[in-house]
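Hi C.,

You asked whether I'd gotten around to modeling the 350-residue construct. I have! Everything is below, sequence then structure, no commentary in between.
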Amino acid sequence: MAVSRIVGLDIGTTTVRAAQFEGIGGRGAPTVTRIAQVALPVGAVRDGEVTDQPAVSAALREAWRQGGFTTKDVILGLGNPRVVVRDLELPWLPIDQLKASLPYQVQEMLPMQASDALLDFLPTAEYEGDTGRMAVGVLVAAPRDVVSSMMLAVDGAGLNALMVDLNAFGQLRSVVHGSMRDRTLALVDIGATVTDVVITAGGVPRLTRVLRGGGGDVTDSVASALSIALPDAENLKREIGLGFQVPPEYQAAADGITAVTRNLLESIRNTFTFFAGNNPGVQIEAIVLTGGGSNLPGLGQYLSSFTRISVVLGDPLAGVKLGKGINRSSLAGNESLLATAIGLGMGDPS
């Protein structure tokens, strides 16, 4: 049964972010009525997998207290490098039957046993082939242990997960709206240790990758270079930025920022190259940056030079209405951090 009130829940490496929507399924832009962000203890989540369930559950309870959420129904986001996302064509069946058939049709595509994965299929098109009607879409295979670790944390907080969605699909919904739907875009969400890349055309995902690496690795490099605590390294990282001149005492940290960031950007560029090789004649028109790691000064310019593609900062609040209790000015400069939670809340919980 469809619900009119839902919370998009993003359990990141360093922070839990949640956004409550009301009027889901109605006409016009959905309305965000409550937002909360609560920091997580170091190590409670690693590479998108919950490793300290009690700590995450406690953070979720605190988020509900701070945010004053009026529902415990959530759409839970999933972002982990072990998740497999692949294009897939299958003989057409009603969607329920098609999904039920996945374990018997996709085993050779998976690096794990199909019985050890939760499988889903997102249909994007269909056509009449030589052997009959075909369904075109995206296969998502998530290791059961990864999903279970997150569900235990959600259950421990007394919340009810109506569905689990891929973080990358939430990010797509949150920043691709209006005229952007007609463009071929690369959405890059840089978290602390995981980076989501989605290439979309006509509002439909054409390629999705979950990459290891993010802003937390840059912080670690600064801390190591200068032998300072992580909170100090985080602040200094944003002061130094990427591609700027620095005092001699910060040069080792600046070199570390450049080296770690370049490794991540090479992985992103390789994803673009793979897409281009499989889609001749289709060009990425712009890169849309979101996530906490996107706030590193100079990153956008560096990424644009590195890929020769224009870069813009995504604003997930541009496609939603804000309730009276939300002060837009209080979120200024941090809008892109909410992309996952906002997009998850815009999903279909029916």
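If it helps when you're writing up: Residues 84-143 form a domain with the Dna Ligase; domain 1 fold (CATH 3.30.1490).

Thanks,
B.
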